[in-house]
Amino acid sequence: MSENPVTQGQQFPLTIKRIGINGEGIGYFKRSVVFVPGALTGEEVVVEATKVNPRYTEAKIRKIRKKSQHRVTAPCPVYDACGGCQLQHLAYPEQLKMKKDLIVQAIEKHTRFHLEQINIRDTIGMGNPWGYRNKSQFQVREIDDTVETGLFGADSHELVPIENCIVQHPDTVKVTNLVRDLLEELEIPIYEEQRNSGIVRTIVVRTGIKTGEIQLVLVTNSKKLPRKRELIERVQTMIPEVVSIMQNVNQAKTSIIFGEETMHLAGKEKITEKLTEIEFDLSARAFFQLNPSQTEKLYREVARAVRLTGNEKIVDAYCGVGTIGLSLASKAAEVRGMDTIAESITDANENAKRAGITNVTFETGKAEEVFPKWIKAGFKPDTIIVDPPRVGCEESLIQSILKTGAKQVIYVSCNPSTLARDIQLLAKKYNIKYIQPLDMFPHTAHVESVTILSLKS
Asked: GO MF terms on file (predicted)?
């Protein structure tokens, strides 16, 4: 392979051809690929090489010679420093087109399909793409003797203080800021990373958008929490909607938010949220969709595709707290789900009980282990729904699916690359009817999608 023609620090002109999976502009200099954060399709820019690899270059914009007509001013004051969003500088209708293109790029790169054979629909967006995130996880640190909350900057471990995150639901911002101020006022020790000392590391807030219930989780570096009673009383007095206060202990030097142990401090242990018409109880560590209004659109897409008659057996792999399976149970004969997090399965079973749904079974374990066990015991599913994490499905699960002869597979994906890889494997026995992209996280480079696959006759 020819060497990269670019040298470190070199400045050169570039035309941006498309946007990549991290929201960065992609261009080519002497046939070598260049990634430029913040650049948009069609723009002519002058860039400076910041990192030169044999196969690609990372660069930053020095000057925009020709600006995209879709470039807008990002409304967030810390947009550049924070890195939580990647696309606030791109007009929202264009973000939706770009997300469809991310799926097109993944199909081109990771499969042998011809694009014209695959029906990739237009992205389903939001009417109001702001204030949608129902859960926030803000780090707490002391900067110049002031307690600050925020996120670590893009590619750094420096805290970017955030007073108002405009993609977060306003309730999560209100509670985070109040707790931050109380921690300072009550002089509760704040975590100090270098010395691994201090106590409060992270403030996690989750709000039930339909129920108005709020849960506060304080992630701490030890079991003890000084002035705990005063803190709890002040929070409950000032924001009565906070109906659950929990403490999670994480003593590991890690970027993972939660530790294994969670303690109940005040109020209820779980909060309630509604999705479609079903109520869900959510414990502190349970995974739940971060954008409920878009999630309902997603489930409508799934339900529309499944076309249930009442006789079907459904598998909901990677089921979390049972959201997809429970939304379909009333129209199916039987639903079975599995997930690796035991608390999620406990919640899923409780949620089923509470809704009076009796034709569901949820089991703790890896999909690739539980699923073959069910098949061996004689369970024959008609529809298999997979909603895997970013790494996609384990190959052993795909092989099990191929053996079942289920009429339909519905693949809910949050990562176009692993989706493309997995549907290439499933294509041995399944036709791809269509892929429906959906914007679950406006202003970020994430794209969710639902792929409908039917058994080849």
From this structure: 4 iron, 4 sulfur cluster binding; rRNA (uridine-C5-)-methyltransferase activity
Taking a C-beta distance cutoff of 8 angstroms, is the pair 171, 214 a contact? Answer: yes
Task: Please answer whether residues 90 and 70 qualify as being in contact, where contact means their C-beta atoms are separated by less than 8 angstroms.
Answer: yes
Residue 276, pLDDT score: 85
- The residue with tokens 């079907």 is 312
Active site residues: 414
Chain centre distance of CA 143: 29
Fold classified for 135-275:
OB fold (Dihydrolipoamide Acetyltransferase, E2P) (2.40.50)
In single-letter form, the type of residue at position 296 comes to E
Instruction: State the average pLDDT over residues 346-356.
Output: 93
Q: Where in the chain is the domain with CATH 2.40.50.140?
A: 10-66
Pick the CATH number of 115-125+291-455 from 1.10.3720.10, 3.10.20.30, 3.40.50.150, 3.40.710.10: 3.40.50.150
- H or E element in which residue 371 lies: helix 367-376
For residue 51, the tally of other CB atoms under 10 A from its CB is 12
The answer, yes or no, to whether residue 155 has pLDDT greater than 90, is no
- At 2 the pLDDT is 64
In terms of phi and psi (left: phi > 0; alpha: psi -120 to 50; beta: otherwise), the region of 322 is left
Number of neighbours of residue 161 by Cβ within 10 angstroms: 18
Average pLDDT over residues 85-97: 98
Residues 6+ apart with CB under 8 A from 451: 410, 411, 413, 419, 423, 432, 434, 435, 436
Q: Which residues contribute to the annotated binding site for S-adenosyl-L-methionine?
A: 289, 318, 339, 387
Lookup result for tokens 């990372």: 58
Tracing tokens 């909603």 back to the chain, one arrives at 387
Known binding-site residue numbers: 289, 318, 339, 387
* 14-27 residue pLDDT tens: 999 999 999 999 99
Which letter, b or e, does each residue of 317-350 get, where b requires 16 or more Cβ atoms within 10 Å of its Cβ? bbbbbbbbbbbbbbbbebbbbbbeeebbbbbbbb
Q: Is the CATH number of domain 10-66 2.40.50.140?
A: yes
